[in-house]
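Blackboard transcription, Thursday session:
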Amino acid sequence: EDKVVQSPLSLVVHEGDTVTLNCSYEVTNFRSLLWYKQEKKAPTFLFMLTSSGIEKKSGRLSSILDKKELFSILNITATQTGDSAIYLCAGRYNNNDMRFGAGTRLTVKP
Amino acid sequence: DAGITQSPRHKVTETGTPVTLRCHQTENHRYMYWYRQDPGHGLRLIHYSYGVKDTDKGEVSDGYSVSRSKTEDFLLTLESATSSQTSVYFCAITSQYNQPQHFGDGTRLSIL
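(Written on the board underneath:)
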């Protein structure tokens, strides 16, 4: 069965810390892996990864995919309270199906 | 914002009643999706559409039907709501199936 597993399920850090969120996947016909950030409402898109070993970066956030070991990580450096959210990863397989993990709830304390 | 409006934003109804949720987009995107989000399960795909009158089932389609008569509107119907369908429902759109999906703000549905 196709599935996506995120770890940890929740994480509490202090401002300035660096965090690493993990996402492992088992999807047939894998196409890409996506990361989203969800605060109070809609998940907002962060990264889409299709190739192994190529880091995607946006400000303090970065992500990389390992297609051999079937996992991805999302790094956040110098965390801020505004980074507090649920981070979702999803494996896209076939053309129109995305399988989401349960999410990692990140809390950044001042 | 990606130009997606979901309505209603909140709804409380009783078991056995029909419920229709609406997703309206102003982006003229071809692909539209309905997901439900429940604690411990993340987002799960209910149905999706790849064009007007073209729809297909997702992972958790039982008890739901959809319709798309216009590019901009995608309707999700619960013919006879059950308490297990209490959830937050999200609509998503994308212009190409291999591009990121963008989400609406969700509809919180409670079935008593």
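Lecturer's comment: The radius of gyration of chain A is 13 Å.
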